[in-house]
Design brief:
This protein is mainly α. The protein has a domain of about 130 residues.
Length: about 200
Amino acid sequence: MTDQGAGAASGKAGMSVNVTYFKVPSGILKIAQFALSFLTMICTFAQPGYGHWTLGSQGGGWVGFTALTAVILSAVLILVYLFRINEKIPRQVPLQIIVTGYLAAYAVFYFMCLIICAVYAGKNAGGYGSFDAVAAAAFFSAMCMLVYAGDAVLSFLTFKRGGDGGTDAATAPPPGDIGTSDITPGVYAGSDLRNPEPVY
């Protein structure tokens, strides 16, 4: 085993932090999901007369539920990738498929939130009370929908490529960098993506 392989093996023993994940598009989008979902949640709960908006068929409860669960789940995913927990999950668990499904589902959920907020704010505009918070929630729901949809596409492409979305995203070279003829020993060229030790 070379020095490079020994370093990779010793890094597996303890808890390591994967800060480089947050420099790639998928990691940046995870942080954006957390921040935008948090803003949507604040705008939803800050609406004057929140109790009226969440009762009956107004839809405020769905928006609040979606934003709150999105904040929790995106925080969990950030921690999973930050502390490389995804590398410790057995291969039998289809992590990338689960994450892709979650992202696609929340893109649809936020599309529903956008419609609910826009209709509620438009229907009550000019009436009694202020609906600026609901209008802001509609805007942030639209931003969340775009961020979740974009990350779902990236996650699906990672799945098609055979990756797990965490290690490979931070260690893979840009597309087109490695051709089939110029693969050299010790470079990222088909290594195990959950344990990125070089293939010789």
